[in-house]
């Protein structure tokens, strides 16, 4: 499990944190630069992604949560076809990702002189992509930005999925069972995302995989137009043409991937049984952590109370606390309570009335604000199991002394129970 280290900016060593010898610049973006580096402990090549924390927060403070989510997601994924995160380090001004270095570069640059790959090679890469995507879905992770630019090839010719910056977790699914955030790369987005009525993360990933396969085998995008709205209309109607050199089996397979109806679109379980997909042999990756994440404790959970899975429990460990990466931008705390979620919610509402706080409530989540804006806090309540609930509180603004007085000295004491003596993770 990769570490997270918070260190001083005042380092006299030429090597980054005394561990990594930085090499040439591999790429850069608005908030980050990526360098090739050598791990001085092992001699192995790594990629170091350096984020400018100050610039990121000044431009869009909400991006801090995206960064935390990306780290959280990458920490839980260990698969031969997914770029591995080794460790995360931070100073007051920067965040450093030490990641697996994938020598071969982007799959996007691998197309032949004809602009396309052979059907057999397209199948091989697609098999590896589906292996990684299926692994993510089984662990409640949806990539939402699958495209050739985010697919890398290592020195052995194996595909590696990267860039989980737009990924979603199951805890972002709304009560209607769908995701609602509009994201992705225009030419690769599924039609249901354009409808803005919510979508299934697994199904939109399958659509994007279909576009990727089409690009690999055809050498061009199935949906493309200089006019964005015209392109969206083609996606929404599923209007595309396969080139004449594609086999009938591949055309049929792509039509199932690019089915505009998400209800009838092929699933990952069906993909791995399809005749075109398994041609030439397909061996599923066997991993040590293969567990049935759908298995849970007995008893039904009342509607509206979020239940937590195994990865949520792991993330409660203070060793996995990512908040120090953005120290100073917020304060939060998470703790256990023996009280039921219903009782806790009732106590929060009672307290808000007593203190005359403004309250916005959604399910078991609360946004509370003082009458003059001197106190702003977000509280979320989740069911851990039949005996315990988790309370998460985050200061969103206002005076720090007022927060201490109202939260630490009053509301927290009201919500805690005998089992709660120490917070699970304090930010």
UniProtKB/TrEMBL annotation:
Presence of keyword Transcription regulation: no
Reported cofactor(s): Mn(2+)
Top-level division of the source organism's lineage: Eukaryota
The keyword Repeat belongs to this UniProt entry's keyword annotation: no
Entry keyword set: ATP-binding, Kinase, Manganese, Nucleotide-binding, Serine/threonine-protein kinase, Transferase
GO biological process: signal transduction
Domain NAF: 303-327
UniProt xrefs under InterPro entries: Kinase-like_dom_sf, NAF/FISL_domain, NAF_dom, Prot_kinase_dom, Protein_kinase_ATP_BS, Ser/Thr_kinase_AS
Sections of the chain in a coiled coil: none
SUPFAM superfamilies found in the cross-reference section: Protein kinase-like (PK-like) (SSF56112)
Gene Ontology molecular function: any one: ATP binding
Membrane-spanning segments: none
Reaction equations catalysed: L-seryl-[protein] + ATP = O-phospho-L-seryl-[protein] + ADP + H(+); L-threonyl-[protein] + ATP = O-phospho-L-threonyl-[protein] + ADP + H(+)
Binding positions for ATP per the UniProt entry: 49
CDD domains noted in UniProt: CIPK_C
UniProt-listed PROSITE patterns: NAF, PROTEIN_KINASE_ATP, PROTEIN_KINASE_DOM, PROTEIN_KINASE_ST
Residues of the Protein kinase domain: 20-277
Pfam families from the UniProt entry: NAF, Pkinase
EC number: 2.7.11.1
Family: Belongs to the protein kinase superfamily. CAMK Ser/Thr protein kinase family. SNF1 subfamily.
Protein's name in the database: non-specific serine/threonine protein kinase
Organism encoding this protein: Brassica campestris (Field mustard)
């Amino acid at each position: 499990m990769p570490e997270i280290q918070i260190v001083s900016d005042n380092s006299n060593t030429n090597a980054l944190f005394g561990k990594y010898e930085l090499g040439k610049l591999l790429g850069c973006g608005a908030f980050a630069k990526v360098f090739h580096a050598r791990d001085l402990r092992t001699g192995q090549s790594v990629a170091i992604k350096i984020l400018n924390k100050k610039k990121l927060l000044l431009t869009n403070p909400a991006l801090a949560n995206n960064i935390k989510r990306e780290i959280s997601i990458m920490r839980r994924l260990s698969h031969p076809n997914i770029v591995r995160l080794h460790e995360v380090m931070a100073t007051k001004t920067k965040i450093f990702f030490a990641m697996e270095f994938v020598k071969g570069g982007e799959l996007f640059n691998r197309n032949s002189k004809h602009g396309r790959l052979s059907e057999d090679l397209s199948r091989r890469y697609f098999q590896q992509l589906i292996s990684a995507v299926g692994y993510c879905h089984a662990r409640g992770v949806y990539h939402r930005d699958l495209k050739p630019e985010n697919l890398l090839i290592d020195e052995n010719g194996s595909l590696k999925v990267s860039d989980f910056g737009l990924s979603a977790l199951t805890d972002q699914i709304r009560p209607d069972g769908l995701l609602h955030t509009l994201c992705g790369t225009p030419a690769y987005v599924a039609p249901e995302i354009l409808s803005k009525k919510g979508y299934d993360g697994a199904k939109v990933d399958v659509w994007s995989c279909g576009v990727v396969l089409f690009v690999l085998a055809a050498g061009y995008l199935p949906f493309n137009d200089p006019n964005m709205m015209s392109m969206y209309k083609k996606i929404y109607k599923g209007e595309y043409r396969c080139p004449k050199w594609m086999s009938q089996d591949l055309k049929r397979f792509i039509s199932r991937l690019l089915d505009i109806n998400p209800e009838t679109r092929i699933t990952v379980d069906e993909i791995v049984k399809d005749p075109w997909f398994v041609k030439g042999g397909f061996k599923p990756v066997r991993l040590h952590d293969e567990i049935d994440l759908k298995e849970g404790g007995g008893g039904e959970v009342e509607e509206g109370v979020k239940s937590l899975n195994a990865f949520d429990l792991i993330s409660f460990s203070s060793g996995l606390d990512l908040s120090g990466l953005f120290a100073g931008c917020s304060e939060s705390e998470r703790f256990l309570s023996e009280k039921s979620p219903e009782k806790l919610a009732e106590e929060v509402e009672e307290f808000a009335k007593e203190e005359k706080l403004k309250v916005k409530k959604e399910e078991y989540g609360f946004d509370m604000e003082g009458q003059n804006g001197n106190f702003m806090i977000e509280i979320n309540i989740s069911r851990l199991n039949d005996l315990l609930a988790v309370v998460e509180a985050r200061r969103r603004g206002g005076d720090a002394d007022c927060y201490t007085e109202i939260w630490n000295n009053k509301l927290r004491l009201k919500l805690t129970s005998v089992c709660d003596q120490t917070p699970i993770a304090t930010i």
